[in-house]
Design a protein that fits this description.
Radius of gyration: 31 Å
Helix content: 55-70%
Distance between the termini: 94 Å
CATH superfamily of the largest domain: Winged helix-like DNA-binding domain superfamily/Winged helix DNA-binding domain
Oligomer: single chain
Number of strands: 2
CATH class of the largest domain: Mainly Alpha
Strand content: under 5%
Number of domains: 2
CATH architecture of the largest domain: Orthogonal Bundle
């Protein structure tokens, strides 16, 4: 078979590379400085993480009715220490009547907290749970602090499950 002369010629011709025209490009790191570049990368990464968190919260809000919350999950997000856990337990035991901050202080004497500290702790727990789940964990009814229906369902469900589990084992 015969080859065309132009195809053979095009295979043999290689483009000439001019060494003088190739410049070494500086990286972004070299142009603005390593520290500033790393700071920009960090800001960009943090912004992307916040977008992912927002997307997860949106998905969570849409599927909220189908989730089953556990007491340990809520405590992990809401409580910073054992004082917060004890406050939630005392509010659960008080039921729908709730407790005054001064009553909570008397029951929490071993932790040496004051009345306004109890209220601030409850507000911080509300803020953390609201940010993650879109619900408050406790609310004011008059001067009393009471667990919301969201929290009562979770604590009540676990108590009921514990009672059912005890009844099964006996």
């Amino acid at each position: 078979m015969e080859r065309n002369s132009w195809s053979v010629h095009s295979d043999m011709v290689t483009p000439e590379i001019h060494v003088q025209n190739q410049k070494k490009k500086r990286s972004r790191n070299d142009k603005i400085g390593r520290l500033k570049y790393n700071q920009q990368l960090l800001k960009q990464t943090l912004a992307e993480v916040e977008e992912v968190k927002l997307m997860l919260r949106t998905i969570f809000a849409g599927l909220k009715g189908s989730f089953n919350f556990e007491q340990t999950l809520i405590e992990r997000f809401a409580c910073e220490d054992e004082v917060d856990m004890e406050i939630l337990q005392l509010l659960f035991e008080a039921g729908s009547l709730g407790l005054l901050p001064k009553d909570l202080v008397t029951k929490l004497e071993r932790f040496k907290v004051r009345r306004h500290q109890v209220s601030r702790r409850i507000l911080r727990m509300n803020k953390r749970v609201k940010r993650e789940f879109g619900e408050n964990i406790a609310e004011h009814r008059g001067w009393h602090w009471v667990l919301t229906s969201f929290a009562m369902d979770i604590w009540g469900k676990t108590e009921k499950e514990q009672n059912d589990h005890k009844a099964i084992t006996f």
